Amino acid sequence: MCIRDSMTGDAAPTAIAVAKELGLLESGKRKSAILEGSRFYQQIGGIICRVCLADICLCRTSERLRRNIIGDQDQFNEVSADLVILARTKPSHKEALVLGLQEAAHTVAVAGNGANDAAAMRRADVGIAMGKEGTEIAREAADLILLEDKLDSLAHTIVLGRNIYQSVRKFLQFQLTMTISTIVLEFLGALLYRQPIFASIQLLWVNLTIDILASVAFATEPPDDDLLWAKPVRRDEYIITKKMMAFIMFHGITLSAVALALTCFGENFLPEYGPDLLGDNFESVRYNGQTDYVRSGRTKFLFSNEDDYGHLIDNFGPSRHYTIVFTSFTFMMHATLINSRSIDLRLNVFRGITRNWLFIVIVIGLFLSQFLIVTIGQPFHCHREGLHWIQWVICVLFGISILIAWSCLLYTSPSPRDS
């Protein structure tokens, strides 16, 4: 929130005294910060018609359809750069200030209580009137009426509104990341091995996390203290920013690459434990040959219809290999949920998390739920014996690695960061 200018019909000495009391005007401020309305209006060339460039319209455009501009926008930008107080103003002076700021791509809000403020409030992006002391004309021109005439309630409203917008962005950031990575993995699984990497019930669980639990987690995020002083969102700004796109690209590529690597090469480095099991043709069901690594859970060989693990599923159920892939991907999804709390590339993604106890409960609940569905096993297309505790640790480490990788990337990035 930027309280940029004070417009008043009072004389300059009165306006200066009030501005100093409010902290809008510092001692020793240049005289250019204080102007009377008539001089300001004269310097900027007044308000003119966009078509005929005249104060009094010569193109016979009706007042309702006329589009106004500032006579000299460059001069307005120069004058308004230092302007703090506009004294002895008329309605046209106030409207000119609002119009000029809008032409300079600013988002403008005007608060007032008199008939002289009505034109400026109508012109502003948001007009705010006082409910008790405001005139009927001012209330009709306003978009927002303060029932108690307290400006501090206005500040609180701005913070809550911005927090809702931030929460929507956080949710979109997370949802797009997970949706893209899931689609990429399912497409590559079908292309390479003639099978989806995740079963339908597993995708349903992932979708439940993305659509329901994540939305609840972000909807309960408390407002940040810095929101009040943040710059307003530009009218032409997209809801998905470049920083959000960087987040989506990094996490989408990383999650897809790690899960695909586990799928393609997991049998070469993922450890296995427990007694060996033999299929009908006396091949190992649990181990990868004579090694201590898991057996491949892929139903087909690469780019082939030749059977790999497919003939063993009916008798022995889903493999531990694919159970590890699913669990690791889910924990990386949980880490992405935490990273999504920042949409401005802030280094500390845990900032303020202790104030949102529901977010913490949801993350812990997701972890415990994942443990439960893997332990149950086959109803969720997981290995019937679940995972060994060392395999659980490996899956958790994959999730933590996403938190560490993102923090390292932000730390080494030249972009400005908040701690």
User: What is the count of β-strands?
Assistant: 8
- Name the beta content range: 5-15%
Order of helices and strands: EHEHEEHEHEHEHEHHHHHHH
In spatial order, strands of the major sheet run 1-5-2
Structural class: mainly alpha
Task: State the end-to-end distance.
Answer: 21 Å
Mean pLDDT: 85
Low-confidence stretches: none
* Biggest sheet statistics: 3 strands, parallel
Kindly state the percentage of residues in helix: 40-55%
Can you count the helices? 13
What integer value in Å does the Rg equal? 31 Å
Shape: elongated
Task: Give a short summary of the structure.
This protein has 13 helices and eight strands. It has helices at residues 12-22, 37-43, 73-80, 91-103, 118-123, 136-141, 151-193, 200-219, 242-265, 313-316, 320-339, 357-376, 389-412, and strands at 6-7, 34-36, 47-49, 68-70, 85-87, 109-112, 126-130, 144-146.
Please give a structural write-up:
This protein is mainly α. 49% of the residues lie in helices and 6% in strands. The chain has 13 helices and 8 strands. The longest helix is centred in the middle third of the chain and has 43 residues, at 151-193. The two termini are 21 Å apart.
Describe the SSE topology.
Blueprint: E1 6-7, H1 12-22, E2 34-36, H2 37-43, E3 47-49, E4 68-70, H3 73-80, E5 85-87, H4 91-103, E6 109-112, H5 118-123, E7 126-130, H6 136-141, E8 144-146, H7 151-193, H8 200-219, H9 242-265, H10 313-316, H11 320-339, H12 357-376, H13 389-412
Parallel strand pairs: 1-5, 2-5, 6-7, 7-8
Antiparallel strand pairs: 3-4
Helix pairs in contact: 2-4, 3-4, 7-8, 7-9, 8-12, 9-11, 11-12, 11-13
